[in-house]
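Leishmanolysin-like peptidase, pasting as requested.
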Amino acid sequence: MIFLKILLFSLSSVLHGGVTERVCNHYIPAQHEVLHDVSLEPLHLMKKRSINQRLRIREVFHSSVNRLPPDKLTLVKHRLLPAALSYWENTLVVRQTAGPIRLNRNCSQNDIIYRAGYYPPYCVHGCEQTTYCGHVPVPYDHLEACRIYQDGHYHETGYAGRGVLNADFVLYVSAVASSKCDPEVTVAYAAYCQLEGSMDRPVAGFINLCPYSISTKLHDMTEMVSTIKHEILHALGFSAGLFAMYRDKNGDPLTERDIFTGRPEMFNNELGVYQWSSKVVRTVSRRDWRVRGAVIQRHFYLMVTPKVTEEARRHFNCSTLEGAELENQGSIGTKLTHWEKRVFEHEAMTGTYTQNPKISRITLALMEDTGWYRVNYAMAEPLQWGKNLGCDFVKKSCMEWIKMRTEQKKSILPFCTKVKSTPLRTLCTTDRDAVALCNLKQYPKPIPFMYQYFSETSGDLPGTAAQYGGSVGLADYCPYVQEFVWRDRTDTIQRGSRCTLSSNTAEVHGNHFLETYGPNSKCFEHHGIWSLKRCNMPAPLKHFGSGCYKYSCNSTVGLVLDVHGKSYRCYKTGQILVVRVIFDGWLTEGSIVCPSCQEICQAKGVTCPPEYNPPYSSPVNLRMPCRGSLLHPRHVQVGIIYHECAGSGDEVLSH
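Structure tokens follow.
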């Protein structure tokens, strides 16, 4: 039996690049926290309505939001929430809500009774003084009158409010430092709180923004917006607590209903949710799952609704795929309520934020399969992870897949097998949107057997293979290429590695590879280690391997890279671009590997010219710097050892 081999190097200095991860533990409300049967329109009328109303979300702010510091308040109200709400309003379409939304009141002791032929529930012991949605007291003006069953009679007390007009969903927004707000883990959490009575669609929900986790730093904006979009989608329908409520395209339930209450027949007390049918989620067994020293059987949860299955098969190019795999680790807030991290990695609805989140067609297909929405697939974002990699990628362990690809002499990306070392070797993510690291690491003790993929290590650590795995547990400990952040010696984040963000540009003294970050940049691999020289003395770099560079595409000349203001044309795949410039008082020498023009430019609609060998380029004379003082000492920490220059002249060098 052949196993994977870890390429291990000694780690002799502190690394300042670190991968990031933030787990989502979705809050699934308890049974008594969800009010059903909000009265909008009878089922027979609602079924006749076309799904043609663009989703209208009305946000209602709790007083806690206004108590945020001014910079955070401005960020939440004028950037984060508008961006997230606008995305979903432009993506989801619903059956038109005929009138205002009036929400039900909480019943005292949670005791309700149904009146024959009339679906809104009545309270047996009267209504609570205050009805909550999450942490927010629902305004009286948003509520129905109190429906009471008393002494054998059904009646209403008090007055119904005006309700919420011109809305299909009411989102109550708070910023409470609750017990669920772990500043290291949780940015926000959200859930539904009331469902309408005819088709069970959520019509009200909440999102709580954890005040101490809201970041105003520019490099955190992508994560902040993505997190809020992610959490709002849980409230709109992507939740294990709502799977049993899903309907087919005709509006009929996919899970059998109780003839008296209209609710799903079974409640799963272990999970705390109504039990869905096999038309929604099914358990699938893989009997040939290869791990370290064994072949085992594993069971997976798959979302098997029609559009999800169709989109998953198309994405992976696997016609026999049964559906889209759901997360199988963690509590119910992570498990089942997200896509499987190993299979979907940077899809925005996986259970942990790691890099470059994308809301894919598969997530939008899930929302369509709820039976409540039509979706605008033009709003889907391109997901590169696993795209067209076939059935083996999604049906076999990452160990098996890496082994097969290695034997076929094919790329093992997005997986990897190199432990971080000094000098630190960086890579590119599969979509080339970021400089990346292999997140393979050694754990202090063996990881669970079903996630052990390595049999041996090269180096001086025999017998520790069981301790090696990827740093993201939800990805089944599969090691993969992941973007990261640069930190200083105080562990403060300085910048990220996403090429498209201008804010990730290094300071001049730290830009050793002449990189340019911005919307027109991508990651390109280096050919070997770059060097910096002054006075004939080298400055060893503590990392190498890849960098972000501005590029352009043209049907006449193909792919062109811009390095330090100079254009370098890629004539063919694998061509080595030699870079040799004087920058910031140092002779900087290195090289970049050209990818195929088609890989980079096809997405821009550019037809690449035929490939051919590059023409001869005459060498350029350069003078090696040998003047000036040392660079500022604080730049030593980012990876260069500087040498004092003894000479006073410049040495002439040729290219």
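Note for the archive: The chain has three domains: 4-20+396-494, 27-238, 501-654.
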